[in-house]
Design goal:
Elements (H helix, E strand, L loop, with lengths): L5 E9 L4 E8 L10 E5 L8 H6 L4 E4 L9 E4 L19 E6 L2 H18 L16 E6 L5 H6 L1 H7 L5 H11 L13 H11 L2 H7 L26 H9 L3 E5 L9 E4 L8 H4 L1 H12 L5
Parallel strand pairs: 3-6, 6-7, 7-8, 8-9
Antiparallel strand pairs: 1-2, 4-5
Helix pairs in contact: 2-8
Protein name: Serine carboxypeptidase-like 5
Organism: Triticum urartu (Red wild einkorn)
Keywords: Carboxypeptidase, Hydrolase, Protease
């Protein structure tokens, strides 16, 4: 896309098996030499990175309406955010942030803590932060994050009542019958035609060739690969949030309406779905830009 530097490549993560991760790198349109560097991880788990690139924070977006029956048109998105450092040493001095939404809320604090510990104790093999701990260049942001099932599930009903979504009568009935132990499985009908468009575009050979995806790596692209082996070994990310923020690292959690002390900021983006930047790209862009610049939200 003209005017936007985008690279699609692989980075090796496991020498013994030769495992690689496919990634998109979008250079800052403002000042790539000094602007903060953001690593964005897709939630799910097992969901494709194309969802974040094309629907949330990437430099392009789909024109879905009106739908003509063919491939959706790709247009410029003016509100995109944007062993890797070994290949890109020019970004070593940039402030580094990790971001993501949904299930990424589980793994991002864990990754951030791992980087921070390496930063403070020794040079990291992949991410080398040369500044001393008191000059923090590491932070993270998570949107509608999964943190801990006990907290996430059991606070849905009180939150719905607090926001005026459910009446006092319904809330009191829930409290009486559930006694604070809620299992709230929300099931909404998905827009089938949208999923059809997504799957068709990403499974098109021209699309795969343009992105540089290796032939034979996957037979069919799906938004979230439920059959992919995955071990749920992080029961809660709350201890990592507490550890990082009390040690001086900044964090942005955009979902709630209050601001929390100890370097953690909470924000609400109104009128959005689960993946906020997909629904309100301009507002989310401004929110992230202000936070990265240490400006009031």
């Amino acid at each position: 896309m003209a005017g936007v530097a985008v690279r699609c490549r692989y980075v090796g993560v496991e020498e013994e098996t030769g495992a690689e991760l496919f990634y998109y790198f979008v250079e800052s349109e403002r000042s790539p030499g000094t602007d903060p560097l953001l690593l964005w991880l897709t939630g799910g788990p097992r969901c494709s990175v194309i969802m974040g690139l094309a629907f949330e924070i990437g430099p392009l977006k789909f024109v879905l309406a009106p739908y003509s029956g063919g491939l959706p048109e790709l247009v410029y998105n003016p509100y995109s955010w944007t062993k890797w450092f070994t290949d890109h040493p020019q970004f070593l001095s940039n402030p580094f942030y990790i971001g993501g939404d949904s299930y990424a809320g589980k793994v991002i604090p864990l990754i951030a803590q791992g980087i921070s510990e390496d930063k403070e104790e020794r040079a990291h093999d992949m991410v080398m932060m040369s500044s001393p701990p008191h000059r923090t260049k590491l932070g993270y942001m998570v949107g509608n994050p999964i943190t801990d099932p006990k907290f996430d599930e059991n606070y849905k009903v009180p939150s719905a009542h607090g926001f005026g979504i459910i009446s006092d009568e319904i809330y009191e009935t829930a409290v009486k019958n559930c006694k604070g132990d809620y299992v709230n499985h929300v099931s909404e009908m998905c827009v089938e035609v949208l999923h059809t468009i997504n799957n068709f575009w990403m499974n098109n050979n021209m699309t795969r060739k343009a992105l540089g995806i290796k032939e034979g790596t996957t037979s069919e692209w799906v938004q979230c690969n439920i059959g992919l082996p995955y071990t749920y070994e992080i029961p809660s990310s709350i201890p990592y949030h507490l550890n990082l923020t009390t040690r001086g690292y900044r964090a942005l959690v955009y979902r709630f309406t209050i601001e929390y002390t100890k370097n953690m900021t909470f924000a609400t983006v109104k009128g959005v779905g689960h993946t906020a930047p997909e629904y309100r790209p301009k507002e989310c862009f401004v929110m992230a830009q202000r936070w990265l610049n240490n400006e009031p939200l």
